[in-house]
């Protein structure tokens, strides 16, 4: 999307200099395969806000990044000399400074309900990463945890989106985790999860197809094969953050 500048730029390492940020511009510090950073990418895309993206090495973190976010995580945004981090906080900040395109509802009850949905859907992430690291000893329990999280997600989907007739705050925050769950059978073929999102989850299956048609999701989504390659590199302790970037 035209509002992103550098979304697929080469990841910066400790020896790389940080380019100066022009006055009045917003910068997003990102890692291309982080689901929490993807929340911010989705939010910027949905709101169509112009943003400069700096991709950061999260294993060997640049000093200039830790000076901005002492937790060393993504996403972080820099705006008018201010630093904001944590994905849900970043989303709400963007709604506050760009209220005309607010993703969160104005009504306090509906606003609260979207946040409750995010909390109730949060088990998807833990179940995914649990299975990603699962061994033969605990994989059955891991599969059970994931199915329980997906059962909850299926039951909570009462409309086209978790936001209602159109995508909303809960969709932007849960989608990155569902994107990874969908490719889990390819990342861990040994778990034999080929039919993970089959007939047991008809609403979720239709929802995922619906989400993939949204412009903001098209801007943020990574091809399944790139996810597989990234997680393969991640397991070695040397993640390849630049998978899928074509050299100029």
UniProtKB/TrEMBL annotation:
InterPro entries: Glutathione-S-Trfase_C-like, Glutathione-S-Trfase_C_sf, Glutathione_S-Trfase, Glutathione_S-Trfase_N, GST_omega, GST_Omega/HSP26, Thioredoxin-like_sf. Residues 24-102 form the GST N-terminal domain. Its EC number is 1.20.4.2, 1.8.5.1, 2.5.1.18. Residues 107-231 form the GST C-terminal domain. It comes from Plectus sambesii. One of its GO terms (molecular function) is glutathione dehydrogenase (ascorbate) activity. SUPFAM superfamilies: GST C-terminal domain-like, Thioredoxin-like. Keywords: Oxidoreductase, Transferase. This is Glutathione S-transferase omega. PANTHER family: GLUTATHIONE S-TRANSFERASE (PTHR43968:SF9), PTHR43968. One of its GO terms (cellular component) is cytoplasm. Coiled coil: none annotated. Gene3D superfamilies: 1.20.1050.10, Glutaredoxin. Belongs to the GST superfamily. Omega family. Exhibits glutathione-dependent thiol transferase activity. Has high dehydroascorbate reductase activity and may contribute to the recycling of ascorbic acid. Participates in the biotransformation of inorganic arsenic and reduces monomethylarsonic acid (MMA). GO terms for biological process: glutathione metabolic process. It comes from the Eukaryota. It catalyses: methylarsonate + 2 glutathione + H(+) = methylarsonous acid + glutathione disulfide + H2O; RX + glutathione = an S-substituted glutathione + a halide anion + H(+); L-dehydroascorbate + 2 glutathione = glutathione disulfide + L-ascorbate.
